[in-house]
Specification:
10 strands; 114 residues
Length: 114
Amino acid sequence: QVQLVESGGGLVQPGGSLRLSCAASGSIFSIYMMAWFRQSPGKQRELVAHISSGGSTNYADSVKGRFTISRDNAKKAVYLQMSSLTPEDTAVYYCNSLGQKFSWGQGTQVTVSS
């Protein structure tokens, strides 16, 4: 079973940038399409971006052009580079397989505020 640990969140001003990391355990990580999700208070968890094992990417319209997802299969890690952040990006960010096959980690809080 794959376990996931997210990190890199924090408080950032509007227009700022953050890089989130997701460390995965388990030898089967590389075969999965991985994704970043986020959840704001009172809202359902939403898909932000996903990346195939080969590196093909896809983004939600709300983050397209501002966020970049990447992965390092050798390090069993997934990253989310976020730029031009707005208060609407404030949420807890989680990684998981696109099909949400793994247990959810604790997430990492991103707060965009002046």
